[in-house]
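Technical note accompanying the year-one report. For the benefit of new consortium partners, we illustrate the data format agreed upon in the data management plan: each record pairs a sequence with a structure-token string. No post-processing was applied to the example shown here.
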Amino acid sequence: MFQGGKQETRIPFWTDRIFKWSCEKTKNCLVFVPNSYLSPIPEEKSIIMSSDHNPVSCCFQMFKMKNDEDIPLTKVTFAHIENRSIDPYGNFNGPTIYSNYSL
């Protein structure tokens, strides 16, 4: 039986409690503070008790990267959009894309 009092056939997921570093260079920039993880249980019944999910929280220390060149970059594409047929009174015919720019 789960926290909400309902019998369930599925196994509850705890993915909100799993942390994953996606970039090796940034894994030391965010450090978990020991003993800061909380999953509070209310003393009185409340709307929180109607789910099998508890609110969770924790603290992290953030550190600046030693070298700005180590900052992971993501490719971003910009589009120059121009529309010469915009009616200030509400009629809009849609944009025209003239060129794309990539960084």
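Partners are asked to follow this layout when depositing records. The CA atoms of residues 6 and 37 lie 27 Å apart.
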